[in-house]
Amino acid sequence: MNMSTQEQYLEDLLLEEEVKNQNEIVLYNDEVNTFDHVINTLMRTCDHTPEQAEQCSLIVHYKGKCTVKTGDYDDLKPRCTLMLEAGLSAEIV
Question: Fewest 10 Å CB contacts: which of 23, 24, 84, 90?
């Protein structure tokens, strides 16, 4: 293995480890909240654009759940708490 191949291999390993350490907020479908409420909450809590929030709300509606934010646990925890306080069904996985 030459040096550049070894360096690339190590970079790939580091990237893979970083991805594994990421957590996700998963939003679940419910029969209570309106699309507008879900969209507005996603824009406020996850910094989604209106288009992203609408797409996530449709995925949740038709598939039952959707990953709405990925990142470090410390960043996701307050976001998930705000979502729960807004009446949405979500968890960090």
Answer: 84
Could you tell me the CA-to-CA distances from 73 to 7, 24, 41, 85 in Å, in that order? 29, 8, 19, 18
Q: 9 lies in a domain? A: no
Q: Which residue has the tokens 């910094």?
A: 47
Give the DSSP letter of residue 31: S
| pTM for this prediction | 0.79
Is 23 in contact with 70 (CB distance < 8 Å)? Answer: yes
At 85, which CATH number? 3.30.1390.10
pLDDT tens across the length of the chain (93 residues): 456 787 888 777 777 666 567 899 999 999 999 999 999 999 999 999 999 999 999 999 999 999 999 999 999 999 999 999 999 999 999
Distance CA 13, CA 42 (A): 32
